[in-house]
Specification:
The complex is a heterodimer of chains A (about 500) and B (about 450).
Chain A (H helix, E strand, L loop, with lengths): L1 H7 L6 H7 L11 E3 L2 H4 L13 E6 L10 H13 L4 E6 L13 E4 L4 H4 L3 H6 L6 E4 L10 H14 L3 H8 L4 E4 L12 H16 L7 E5 L4 H11 L3 E5 L3 H5 L5 H13 L2 E4 L2 H11 L6 E3 L23 E5 L8 H14 L4 E5 L5 H10 L6 E5 L3 H10 L2 E4 L8 H8 L4 E4 L4 H4 L4 E3 L4 H13 L1 H17 L2 H16 L1
Parallel strand pairs in A: 1-4, 2-3, 2-7, 3-4, 7-8, 8-9, 9-10, 11-12, 11-14, 12-13, 14-15, 15-16
Antiparallel strand pairs in A: 5-6
Helix pairs in contact in A: 4-21, 7-10, 8-9, 9-10, 10-12, 14-15, 14-19
Chain B lengths: L11 E8 L24 H29 L6 E5 L1 H10 L1 H12 L3 E3 L14 H19 L5 E3 L7 H9 L4 E5 L2 H4 L8 E2 L6 E5 L1 H8 L14 H10 L6 E7 L3 E2 L2 E2 L4 H13 L5 E3 L1 H7 L28 H12 L1 H7 L2 H9 L3 H5 L9 H7 L5 H33 L16 H7 L7
Parallel strand pairs in B: 1-2, 1-8, 1-11, 2-3, 4-5, 5-7, 9-10
Antiparallel strand pairs in B: 6-7
Helix pairs in contact in B: 1-2, 1-3, 1-9, 2-3, 8-9, 11-16
The chains are: A alpha/beta (about 500), B alpha/beta (about 450).
């Protein structure tokens, strides 16, 4: 009902009313980017176009393009765009909106109490990207720092608050506490992450806690699980938890136990869990002991790339090159890449290995290439993006993704869309959906070297792979992922 | 029992079964090439395992059934086989009882053996001299094992165009078997004897509809004619009366028990088929040589393209369709002159086993239209793995033979002084077990 109200803005009705309700960011060409003031929104109940939507979903996300730090935001964009075609009305809540987001297919929500005020800083933000933004924040009602027992107690308290007016007072009128937050350096996984998560949880509850007009909650990755679980507890709505990655993937044996705990809590309390691959599903079973019947596998999709600029090899580009692209961390297996490279270089002199990305293992990798005396065959350009990234993806002869544990691995599909054949680790979700790639167990360095050598030596192999893979990637559409997600929804809504 | 005379005014069913198993490659690594003393590229364990399994599920039970039928109908039921040299070698090594059961069929006099290339290779497309040699090797093998000299020829995978028919004629064959492709036949049907243009060479064309009803569709429950019974099939056969003289049913022998499992009822079908066909007094069974003597050719047929019995398009794209396949084939035949001159029988045998068509079939990428068939028969995870493994093996082979081989053997002989003699058939190898013990290739001539 209330959502129909927000739509009325576009039908040209009650504009004055709407202006009080939200502000539209003109820089995105009038797209539906809203800053909500929850206490206002809750009052508007005139129904408009409510029957257009089969289902209303509150989606809890952590990032949205273009402000992304990894694949999560991209995946959320792809999924929601296709879900919207199923006439699913999505309210997508991120911790914070930057104003450059463009999501005409759904409603983006910034749940911070200062959302409206925040809009005024837009121009300042754009002129100085790295400027620290001064913002106000409320005390976190739920903190992931708490022990499971405390968390349970808080949830019980929430349960008791269901539908009371006390609730709104509790959240919406919290006393703001002024602190400094750094949010603009792409470093979302900083030391403040737990505070961020707690704040997000409170903000979500404050914004949506009194609302009952939606059918279900869909939470993406652990940062949103506390909010998802709390909101489900408060509203009694079903909770879908979407596992894009696990702490186990990111850190292997050195898991952060708090995150691990949140993941276990979130997936176990969810009504239904969506895993991005069978690989992730089996990890959820093994690592968290989750009942497999509760898990649905929905593979990610990829958007067909528009005809991109064609990149010509100039004289500064090596004759043969192999690309590693991603965070230089344990999860991505950069060490296996370096060891395989050493074996390849013996047989294919002159090949250049590019390790593009940054991360806590980068220094060690640079050091290792020196030990192996192959530093002349290595290039470490650091974190690349934009045109430089596209140039690398299109000019490299091979793309290698030797991940130790990769829930999906959408970058392999991106490499293919730039006509670069991929060698991918079998310990990845993408290997379940991609036939036209070379696959290797990440630890099998000799085999990896063998595949790289053959890939470099045989142009006919690369050409056959890419011509088939291009067709294959076209079939890995987000629409298929949305179809499956929608059937998960349908199973819960009634 | 002897051959019954086929009556020319009665139509006949002409069964020919293909028996072939390739020497599959073991894992060949680029990094580890040249590191083993013996360049043993083929996976003895896997090949033995597969041969024993196929023998158990198909060759032994089907041969037993065919033998029973020949005896039951006192020679009125008969069939033809084409068995590749590499299949016979593997039967000798891994399933000698299967070979014995084929010999027992040969002894009835009601079974004809057809000629082909010993190595089930694609050499007809690349090297005529090599083709002649491989056909000759197979002919000698048929003579030695079954006491027959083939008179009818089938090329690997029924790959055919006019010039291949003429090459076979030059080698003394009277007829060649090909696919009855619609686009080649036009308004004609495959149920007559034809000739290769401008020659006396007879052309026997596969009736692919009725053949594939048995070979591919037999167990397909989505097929409107499922379940296929012998009576139903015999009715279709009898319908040909008046519109054809022969019915050529050509298929892989593994259809019986391997592609169509025993549980589908394929053996009961085969067992009852002769009775059902012979119920019509006009119909009889015959073999290709009988057919070409009994029936006059109706016309010559020009094949304007290379055809085969594979896939929807009946072309050769399953073996030579993509760039990898072209490249691998070109590489293996690029050393042809060098290999054939070398006189090195050991190396020649390996080189020829690397020519077997299956290696190239595994590299096929056209998975989307005919997909499942290719996936089902490949020992590799992907066509790319097949290509890489093949190129690694070939790299090793081409580095080792023939240049380095002599020096290598001289060194080895000093260490191991007991090389084995070549087997009695020149150009073929002692069993792999022997080679593995000795760890030394036979000396060059």
């Amino acid at each position: 009902m209330k959502w129909g109200k927000t739509l009325s803005f576009f039908a040209g009705r009650k504009i004055a009313d709407q202006e009080r309700l939200c502000s539209v960011d003109s820089s995105t060409g009038g797209s539906r980017v809203f800053r909500f003031r929850p206490e206002f929104r809750l009052h508007h109940t005139s129904g408009l176009r409510t029957d257009k939507f089969k289902m209303k979903v509150v989606m809890l996300g952590w990032e949205y393009p273009p402000q992304i730090s990894g694949g999560l935001g991209t995946a959320c964009e792809g999924l929601t765009r296709s879900l919207a075609r199923h006439e699913v009305d999505i309210r997508f809540v991120v911790p914070y909106l930057y104003g450059s987001e463009n999501a005409p297919h759904m409603t983006l929500v910034d749940p911070t109490p200062t959302g409206l005020a925040f809009n005024h800083f837009e121009s300042i933000e754009k002129t100085s990207e790295s400027k620290r933004i001064r913002t106000e924040r409320i005390e976190a009602f739920l903190s992931p720092y708490w022990t499971p027992e405390v968390f349970e107690r808080k949830l019980t308290a929430l349960h008791e608050l269901r539908g009371t007016k006390e609730l709104r007072r509790r959240f919406a009128r919290s006393v703001p506490k002024e602190i400094q937050v750094c949010r603009r350096n792409g470093n979302k996984y900083g030391q403040n992450i737990f505070e961020e998560v707690g704040l997000y949880t409170s903000n979500v509850l404050a914004t949506i806690g009194s609302d009952r007009s939606f059918d279900l909650i869909h939470a993406h990755d652990w940062m949103t699980y506390p909010a998802g679980v709390a909101l489900a507890e408060l509203t009694g709505k079903p909770l879908v938890v979407h596992v894009h990655s696990l702490e186990y993937d990111r850190s292997g044996a050195n898991v952060n136990h708090e995150i691990d705990h949140i993941e276990r809590m979130g997936t176990s309390r969810a009504t239904k869990v969506i895993a991005v691959s069978h690989y992730t599903k089996s990890l959820l079973q093994q690592h968290h002991g989750l009942n497999p019947e509760k898990i649905a596998v929905v593979h990610n999709g990829v958007y067909p790339r528009e005809a991109t600029r064609s990149y010509q090899r100039s004289t500064d580009w090596p004759e043969k090159s192999v690309l590693f692209l991603g965070r230089v961390t344990f999860q991505k297996g950069p060490d296996y890449f370096v060891e395989a490279a050493a074996r390849v270089i013996e047989h294919v002199p002159g090949v250049v290995f590019i390790m593009a990305g940054s991360g806590d293992m980068l220094d060690r990798m640079v050091q290792r290439t020196k030990e192996l005396e192959i530093q002349d065959n290595f290039w470490f350009p650091g974190f690349v993006r934009g045109a430089e990234l596209e140039r690398m993806l299109s000019l490299a002869d091979l793309y290698v993704m030797p991940s130790v544990s990769e829930p999906f691995g959408i970058s392999a599909l991106e490499a293919i869309s730039f006509d670069t054949p991929a060698i991918i680790s079998r310990q990845s979700g993408v290997s379940e959906v991609l036939d036209h790639a070379l696959k290797v167990d990440f630890w099998d360095v000799d085999r990896l070297a063998d595949l790289i050598i053959n890939g470099l030596l045989h142009q006919e192999l690369r050409e056959d792979m890419i011509s088939m893979a291009r067709e294959e990637v076209k079939r890995l559409r987000w629409d298929a992922a949305a179809d499956k997600t929608f059937s998960v929804y349908s199973g819960l809504a009634h | 029992m002897g051959l019954l005379k086929v009556t020319f005014d009665m139509p006949s069913v002409n069964f020919y079964f293909q028996v072939h198993q390739p020497f599959r490659l073991g894992t060949c690594s680029y990094l580890n090439r040249n590191k083993r003393g013996v360049h043993n590229y083929f996976d003895a364990d896997k090949n033995g395992q597969i041969m024993r399994k196929v023998a158990e599920k198909c060759y032994l039970p089907t041969n037993q059934l065919i033998l029973k039928l020949i005896k039951r109908y006192n020679g009125a039921f008969r069939a033809a086989y084409s068995i590749t040299g590499v299949a016979i070698e593997q039967m000798e090594r891994y399933a000698p009882q299967a070979l014995d059961s084929f010999k027992a069929l040969a002894d009835t006099g009601c079974v004809e053996f057809i000629g082909e290339t010993y190595y089930h290779s694609l050499c007809s497309l690349y090297d005529e001299a090599e083709f002649r040699d491989q056909v000759q090797l197979h002919r000698e093998l048929m003579q030695e094992v079954f006491g027959q000299s083939p008179r009818v020829f089938r090329n690997t995978e029924l790959i055919y165009q006019d010039h291949i028919g003429l090459m076979a004629q030059q080698l003394g064959f009277k007829a060649i078997i090909a696919e009855g492709c619609d686009d080649v036949l036009g308004w004609r049907n495959p149920n007559f004897v034809y000739t290769v243009p401008n020659s006396e060479m007879r052309l026997l064309l596969k009736n692919y509809r009725l053949s594939d009803d048995i070979a591919f569709r037999f167990s397909n429950r989505a097929w409107s004619d499922w379940p296929l019974t012998a009576d139903k099939f015999a009715k279709w056969v009898h319908d040909i009366s008046g519109n054809g003289e022969i019915l050529n049913l050509f298929m892989d022998y593994e259809t019986f028990g391997e592609h169509q499992w025993e549980s589908t009822g394929i053996f009961q079908f085969l067992e009852h088929l002769p009775e059902a066909v012979l119920r019509h007094p006009d119909w009889q069974f015959s073999t290709p040589s009988q057919v070409i003597e009994a029936y006059a050719p109706k016309a010559d047929i020009h094949f304007h393209r290379l055809t085969s019995w594979a896939d929807v398009n009946r072309d050769i794209s399953a073996w030579r369709g993509n760039r990898m396949q072209h490249s691998a084939l070109e590489k293996i035949y690029a050393v042809s002159a060098q290999m054939r001159k070398s006189g090195d029988e050991y190396a020649l045998d390996i080189w020829r086993k690397l020519q077997t068509s299956d290696h190239f079939y595994y590299m096929c990428t056209k998975w989307f239209a005919d997909g499942d068939v290719h996936a089902y028969f490949s020992p590799y995870e992907s066509p790319y793995d097949a290509f890489i493994n093949y190129m690694n093996a070939f790299k090793d082979f081409s580095e080792y033979f023939p240049e380095k081989r002599i020096a290598r053997i001289e060194r080895s002989v000093q260490v191991l002084s007991t090389p084995t003699a070549p087997s009695k058939r020149d150009g073929r190898l002692p069993p792999e077990s022997v080679r593995e013990e000795v760890r030394l290739p036979t000396a060059p001539h």
